[in-house]
Give the backbone structure.
Amino acid sequence: MTRDLTLIIPVINEGNILEENTRKLEAFMDSQGVDYEIIICSNGSTDDTVGVGEKLIGDRLRFSHLKDRGVGLAFRKMVEEASSEKIISVDMDLSIDLNFIPEAYGLLDEYNLVVGSKKMGEQERSFFRLLASNVFIYLVRLLMGLDYRDYSIAAKGYRRSDIIKHLSLIDHGSSYVVELIYHVKKRGGEIIEVPVSCHDTRKSKFNIYNESIYRLKNLLTLWFRERLTRIM
Ligand SMILES: Nc1nc2c(ncn2[C@@H]2O[C@H](COP(=O)(O)OP(=O)(O)O)[C@@H](O)[C@H]2O)c(=O)[nH]1
Ligand SMILES: [Mg+2]
């Protein structure tokens, strides 16, 4: 069955909030009058996420799990499985304002990609997380010429037909956000950035140090590859 909107949520060790936040999200979506589905994909969870998630499976909700860790792998699987052209990514902690969902859903009629930007709205993030993301945003502008202000995985809206052809290039991690934005823009796609308020006070599931090194490495690879293709 095809739906009008697919919400995708990667999860790791979210057993304690999985059911409550999924119900919250479903209640919100039921009030929006949009024909939606939710796809949740866990990989590498070592708590009761899989058991809790499998019990949530229903008419509008799919849950799956992969053996290997990494949000990129979960993202690929969820996009492949999505039955809708419009796909919006959400984090399981629901730290972003849910009104982003109907807003992005409307904008995807006109735009190829919607960047929900936490920097432009309210945020409660630690000093180190802000510093790491600001340095990264600066480097993306410098190297790739993109001037968006949020490359985190949450609060992004995609059109499936635009990104499906790039899925094979996505690796295990979270760099796919920058890479997809870059490829969509390069092909002349229209991208809009909108502010999203964010209340995120819990500890990140990502290791800031490893994540920063990984993202920098991927950014430099993308930059290098693009320069090479221009020269050749
Ligand atoms: N499937 C999957 N999800 C992950 C992984 N790492 C983080 N996540 C999920 O990604 C989302 C964002 O994580 P979170 O810690 O809130 O990110 P932050 O607040 O931006 O630092 C949450 O739903 C996590 O459960 C992973 O390796 N695999
Ligand atoms: Mg979070």
User: Anything to note?
Assistant: The helical segments are 18-30, 49-56, 71-81, 100-107, 127-144, 160-163, 176-186, 208-231. Residues 117 and 168 are 26 Å apart (CA to CA). The mean pLDDT is 94.
